[in-house]
Amino acid sequence: MPGRPSQRVIYLHFLAIALAIAVAVLANRDSDWDVPLFAVLLAASTVGDLTAVDAPTSQVKLSSSSLAIVTSIVFLGATPGAVIGVLTIAVGWLRFRYARTTLLINLVTYAWFPLLSGLAFHAVTRVSGIGQMDALFYLLVLALFAVALMINVALIAGYFSYVEGSRFSTKVRRTLGPLLPAEFIGAMLAVAVTYLYVHSGAAAVAIFAVVIVVFQYLVGALLLSEQRSEELELLAKRLAGFQVALLSALLRTLDLRDRMTARHSAAVARYSREIAAKAGLSPEQQELAHTAGLLHDIGKFVLSDRILKGDMDLTEADWNDIRKHPAEGARIVSEIDGYRPVGEIILAHHERIDGLGYPQGLRGDDIPVISRIIAVADTYDVLTARDSYREPVSSEDAIAELRRSAGTQLEPRFVEILADALTGRDLSYRHGESADFETELALDRRIHEYVAAGLSNPGSL
User: Fold this and answer.
1) In sequence order, what DSSP letters do the residues of 161-193 get, joined into one string?
2) What residues have CB less than 8 Å from 3, skipping those under 6 apart?
3) Can you tell me the distance from the alpha carbon of 294 to that of 20, in angstroms, rounded to the nearest whole number?
4) 3-state DSSP call for residue 416?
5) d(CA 422, CA 399)
6) Do domains 7-233 and 258-453 have the same CATH topology?
7) Which of 196, 282, 292, 304 is the most exposed place for a label (fewest CB within 10 A)?
8) CATH top class, domain 7-233
9) Which bin fits 392, alpha (ψ -120 to 50), beta or left (φ > 0)?
10) Are residues 379 and 267 in contact, defined by beta-carbon separation less than 8 angstroms?
11) Are 360 and 323 in contact (CB under 8 A)?
12) Which of these, 86, 66, 73, lies nearest to 38 by C-alpha position?
């Protein structure tokens, strides 16, 4: 059954261990049993395994044992490296007492990866004649570390993919991914230790213990930073979702006071995204146009019901209040972390190309490009929607009106893009009556991607 090795697999483990012993005996003639160095490396490997750190996204542990084993392969040979590997696993099992089936695959792995990589390493150095004083020797040490790691991962991943019934490639990716940053550090340290030992001799043995401590500290710090990064990313996503929910709740509340607001916001968001896409803006800016379109009238929240409902003629004071809604909307949105670019767009969506708009009197290209897009979408929906404050007109008449305003109130390029979009294909609605706020809000759930992207100048194109 998946998750539990068969009896045949266990027998294969014992066979693999027996073969490893035979290969180790045959390879021992080329070994250099420097007892003090062997003892230091065995102690370093064992301590590294006992203080191993759990990888946050994998079942593997990260330790400095591979650094000690690779170093032993370089200076002592394949057989001493395998002996250190097996003894390291045995001591670790006596300490942690994990499953015996896992012990078997660990013994197989830590016997075979030093033997295979070690025999290959010394065969290459022997055939090539590369010695310890040659620069290429240290590249071979780096290659040895990489080969040993790949054999290690392949054996472990192959076993667990077979037992669990999962894909080998997937298991390799999930096993190797968390290891790579730490193992890269280990590889660099292996080269450094090799260089120090070659040039300093026995004095480097004392340094090795310090290197092990440093490596283990770096691994722990690396994993801690990765874990915190993942936690921060999760918190950011939750915060982004909360922010979208908060703003949508404000719009729903506004819609209870003014029935056109939510529908109008949905229509403007849809039209704005379409114009942005056809204008060649990036996907991030298209998302930004959609979000700003949904929220462009949120500043009307501060207006009185008398003004919102539009049941009577408005006074000049009322119009002055209405002209404040872009600034109020920008203030509300910008106070939410990550939404300042949206606020900048909302602030300028009633500016005019000729500079006669409000609240800042911006002119032409000084108006953020997405604000100019929203102005076109906003005007079109107000002209065509039946729940607007004025009698609706046909789509054709609305486009004609937009064209009359092009170059003074509206950006001509975006007017023509909207006209082409409306005549070229169906936008799900041409007059906006069927625009649904909940549908557009669902499309906007990717707002956290835009926030994470950190667009600092959304008005540039």
Assistant:
1) HHHHT--HHHHHHHHHHHHHHHHHHHHHHHHHH
2) 163, 164
3) 67
4) helix
5) 9
6) no
7) 304
8) mainly alpha
9) beta
10) no
11) no
12) 73
> Class of 258-453 per CATH?
mainly alpha
**3 compared with 194, residue with greater pLDDT:** 194
Q: What is the pLDDT, as a whole number, of residue 97?
A: 87
Separation between Cα atoms, residue 144 and residue 246, nearest integer Å: 55
* pLDDT above 60: residue 324: yes
Bridge pairing between strands 61-62 and 53-54: antiparallel
Report angle CA 304, 263, 285 to the nearest 5 degrees. 105
Q: Residues 171-218: pLDDT tens digits? A: 888 777 767 777 787 788 788 888 888 877 766 666 666 666 666 666
At residue 357 the predicted structure's pLDDT band, cuts being 50, 70 and 90, is very high
Q: Closest by alpha carbon to 271, among 161, 148, 373?
A: 373
Give kind and range of the element (H or E) at residue 53. strand 53-54
DSSP string over 259-314 = THHHHHHHHHHHHHHHHHHHTT--HHHHHHHHHHHHHTTGGGGGS-HHHHHT-SPP
Res. 19: pLDDT tops 90: yes
Asked whether the beta carbons of 178 and 60 are under 8 A apart, the reply is yes
The CA distances from residue 41 to 32, 60, 79, 352, 388, in Å, are 13, 22, 14, 75, 81
Instruction: Give the Cα separation of 219 and 213 in Å (integer).
Output: 10
| 437's tokens | 């706020």
| SS3 label, residue 61 | strand
Distance (Å, whole) CA 179 – CA 207: 24
The pTM of the full predicted model, rounded to 2 decimals, is 0.50
Q: What is the 3-state secondary structure (H, E, C) of 213-262?
A: HHHHHHHHHHHHHHHHHHHHHHHHHHHHHHHHHHHHHHHHHHHHHCCHHH
Residue 315 tokens, joined: 């006074």
367 pLDDT above the threshold of 50 = yes
Torsion 270-274-275-281 (CA) sign: positive
Q: Between vectors from CA 26 to CA 23 and to CA 30, what angle results, nearest 5°? A: 115
Q: Delimit the domains of the chain by residue range.
A: 7-233, 258-453
**Residues 456 and 313: beta-carbon distance below 8 Å:** no
SS3 content of the chain, % helix, strand, coil (to 5): 75, 0, 25
